[in-house]
Amino acid sequence: MSAISKLEKNSTYLKVIWSDGEESKFNYLWLRDNCPTAHDKDSRHRMFNILNVSQNINPKKYSLSADGKLEIEWSEGDHTSYYDPKWLRENCYTLKHKQKYISPYKLWDSSLEKNLESIQIEHDEIISSDDGLIKWLELLHHTGIAIVKNSPVEKNSGLNVLKRISHTRETFFKTPFEVINIPKPNNSAYTAHALRNHMDLPWFENPPGYQFLHCLINSAEGGNSSAIDAFKVADYLRENESEIFNTLVNVPFKFKDKDYTQEAHRHFHAPAITLTKDGDFNDVRFSVATMDVLDCSPEVMEKAYKAHHRFGNLLHDPKYQINFRLEPGDIFSFNNRRVLHGRTEFNPNSGHRHLQGYYMDRDEIVGRLNYLKR
């Protein structure tokens, strides 16, 4: 581990020169805010209030203690802080910003269809071992899609395996929601019609992060499933069609809940593609069926529609899409804000098709995976 070899005081930061030659800049307000005594030892919440010091706080004295810690006597508040060099190095924002960002996402296209086994996992493996649960969570987080095989086919039995992750997210569709053909449907999923590739609930400010479709019966003709990695399509546009990509990132589209049974009217404006602070993909919001009447400014309406048209067609392009048939006992699991899903039309007179659906927030998948990996 690198030790601190030299310290230099500047107007707003302390420069630390490490024994391996690296240099870090630590802002004075940042250092005071992150004093090891600032947090409650049990809750780990910050109890110190940085707002109570002036913006000009700085080290009155600074040195290395006998055990190699950075010791700072502050110009205000009659307080001395001691920083472990290991903690400073791990949390150094100077060095973090020099590192190359590596995306956690494994992007895929239609070639995944030839290797569906790579995204399949046995139900009992998840139920009986943390290794199985980690494998499922890694597929969900990194690849965005997984098919759990040989699950029970009793109603509501999907909850047992989902509880291995965390609690589900309740919506007005209830938990689980029943994907069956019903008279006077309040959603096109509850018909025998084909469904274009889409995300669920794009009119929510925060649409569900993951969706789980548990196949109980699938004996009707048709009703085959499709999925597409919208991040892969977005990545293609970023690399090859920058004007389209920039429009999709910068122009908000409008989505609306058109469910006649609802007493709450939901709508939301959001771009089709949003990015993280590192420029990675955060989510894709796309649904032809529930996009509302667009209200972009006249100057961008043509660009907005052309970008939507291009993106939508790529999101149904056979070179990106995979097709498969859900068997009873399969749980089709996917990142709802990355992997769009659809199905072909089915004939309700030829047999029965019944899926049960569940939602879960993305925090639960990523948080559980991080916990188990630690």
Helix content: 10-25%
User: What amount of the residues lies in strands?
Assistant: 25-35%
* CA radius of gyration: 26 Å
The end-to-end span amounts to 21 Å
Helix tally equals 10
> Major beta sheet, specifics?
6 strands, mixed
Q: Spans of 5+ residues with little confidence (pLDDT < 50)? A: none
Strand order of the largest sheet: 7-8-19-11-22-9
What is the molecular shape? elongated
According to DSSP, the number of beta strands is 22
Write the layout of secondary structure elements.
Elements: E1 4-9, E2 13-18, E3 23-27, H1 28-33, E4 59-64, E5 70-74, E6 80-83, H2 85-90, H3 93-96, E7 120-122, H4 123-128, H5 130-143, E8 145-149, H6 158-162, E9 177-179, E10 195-198, E11 210-218, E12 221-222, E13 225-229, H7 230-240, H8 242-250, E14 253-256, E15 267-270, E16 273-275, E17 281-284, H9 298-314, E18 321-324, E19 331-335, E20 339-343, E21 346-347, E22 353-360, H10 362-373
Parallel strand pairs: 7-8
Antiparallel strand pairs: 1-2, 2-3, 4-5, 5-6, 8-19, 9-22, 10-20, 11-19, 11-22, 12-21, 13-18, 13-20, 14-15, 16-17
